[in-house]
Amino acid sequence: MRKRLFVNLSVLLLFTSLIFVTPTEAATNWGVETDVINKYELITLKLGGLNYADYLAENLTMRVAFDSFTDTGYTYTTYNSTGGTSVNETIFVEMPVGEENVTLPVGLPIALPLSIGTIPDYLLYFGQFINTSNSFYLLEELLLNITEYANVTYTAAHSLLDETYLRLYFDLFAPEVNSSILSELMGDGDAGLPISLPVNITDFKLNTTIKFNSTSGLFYDLDMKIRSKSHIDEYTEAFDIDIKYALYVPPPPPEPEPEPEPTESPYPWFIPSIAAFAVISILIVRRRK
Length: 289
Fold this sequence. Notes:
Strands 1, 2, 3, 4, 5, 6, 7, 8, 9, 10 and 11 form an eleven-stranded antiparallel sheet that branches. Helix content is 26%, strand content 38%. The chain is globular and about 60 Å long. A hairpin with a 3-residue loop joins strand 3 and strand 4. The chain starts with a helix and ends with a helix. The model is unreliable at 1-24 and 283-287 (pLDDT under 50). By secondary structure, it is α+β, with helices and mostly antiparallel strands. The longest helix has 20 residues, at 2-21. It has six helices and eleven strands.
């Protein structure tokens, strides 16, 4: 009896020690679904206080549908405004960053996993990576373009996670830039605009916010603000740009109008009393006849 109890106790201790020594493997959890069309559109393209989004919104509208998910990523199809389609893939892999390996997306992160591998809360993990590394990872290509045209003197990045969104903030300043960076920033966004971009820009300040839904991990919007000064001969004026590209969220259905409550007479007994009096009067008259 004692021998059997000793064996059982030994097995229990071994199992318990394995729990504490071996890291828990978190199953990959995706909060988004396949075969659901997610529509993204240009909400704002404001220059000089005027919004030119209507000139370009149709051409820049993109629809995204997730096709399949694996433990390391997903495939998705994009549909552009002309009916063209493109099948793409985003995977999450460990890569060296400084002296550590960090699991980061390779490909456009339309969605982030809620958990993956040994990371039980990937949104928190990714936000902490942005905080500790001050990384412009999601704007890396954009940042490389900027450094080709400007002497960047300040960069900063941080994140904020709450029950609604994971917000990623990126800030940048350059004393002077070549105006062609604006075309790089907007891609084809400057084509067809009724105004021309300045050729001499100073005090270039870029603030970008990227949001992911904290429940599903789905990319929600990108909000970019540029504050700068343009110079034409001896004239200097503010040159500001606001760009917002966001997931289309249909407005909630209108609430039904409440039915009017029946109005009550201030003397609810008055009408029944009159009716009863009339009936009694008729009966008395008939009896007299």
